[in-house]
Here is the input.
Amino acid sequence: MLAAFASAIDRDDPLGGLKIGDRPEPAPPDGWSVISVRAASLNHHDLWSLRGVGLSEDELPMILGTDAAGVDEDGHEVVIHSVISDPDWRADETFDPKRRLLSEGYQGAMAERVAVPRRNVVPKPREMSFEEAACLPTAWLTAYRMLFTRGGVVPGCTVLVQGAGGGVATAAIVLASAAGARVWVTARAEEKRRQAISLGAEEAFEPGTRLPARVDVVIETVGEATWKHSVRALKPGGTLVVSGATTGDKPPAELSRVFFLQLSVVGSTMGTLDELRRLIRFCVENDIHPVIDRTLPLTDAREGFEALLDGSVVGKVVFTV
Ligand SMILES: NC(=O)c1ccc[n+]([C@@H]2O[C@H](COP(=O)([O-])OP(=O)(O)OC[C@H]3O[C@@H](n4cnc5c(N)ncnc54)[C@H](OP(=O)(O)O)[C@@H]3O)[C@@H](O)[C@H]2O)c1
Here is the structure.
């Protein structure tokens, strides 16, 4: 079957190991379903995989992709949940030390077919296309958990989203503003700042700008490039939620500010199946549709990876199968 996969790992030239070509059909264990993929979305995670973060040489070749929407063996339209916990794990699966993601340990979703545990399949909402639904399992689920589970965002609070053009960031802008929060963003390019306003942000600033007021919650996925600004943007008692560090994971910690202003620095990773269901319901009830930068056939996946790597994307890149 056709797939986009990592054939080699290269920290400096991640696309050097990307191949679009033939891979074996999935061989699902008992209790797993094979989903015929209609759309799969690209995440920064796929670039990390090609750089060898979370993926080792001995797992290659590995089909990339954590996200897909498609059709199950009974003809139902479905979305997959990418966090695969141990079958005996009963609590929040993001805390399972044995959890893996599709494309780490299990072949990923950028393929004609993908195998997932049956419990990791949820109905696709009728209100969304396959392309839109394929954006939910990683970027949108991560944003949902960062805002509502980990960040405690409530109507009327002010949220700063750093790196407004990103997949997680665009989801955070749309979800937080739909939930009644005032959303401020930073983005490097004027065009991305303009698009953030059209997605629901009240104001958009250049990275590092002194804000008109301090905020309740910061949504941080950029890392070193924005960390200092994120800490300084918070009100006393505010919360910085971090799920990514695209520009580096060793910024100065700003400890004096953290303890003196009693800030909370909260980590967040992916989300649970229950949160994915709630995210879908929230989107349907508020007529929310994931932000898609471009849709490409899987055969042209390299073009999408190149755009994500050069930072010219706003929202999600989706591959159709
Ligand atoms: N822990 C988890 O479960 C989890 C889940 C999802 C994502 N993540 C991580 O979160 C990060 C974002 O993921 P994504 O898929 O949303 O990535 P993405 O779509 O590639 O977005 C990255 C954003 O980072 C900003 N950025 C990049 N370099 C920058 C720089 N030098 N200075 C300022 N901003 C910069 C850009 O914002 P502007 O161009 O708009 O300024 C860009 O849009 C990744 O590191 C990913 O691995 C983690």
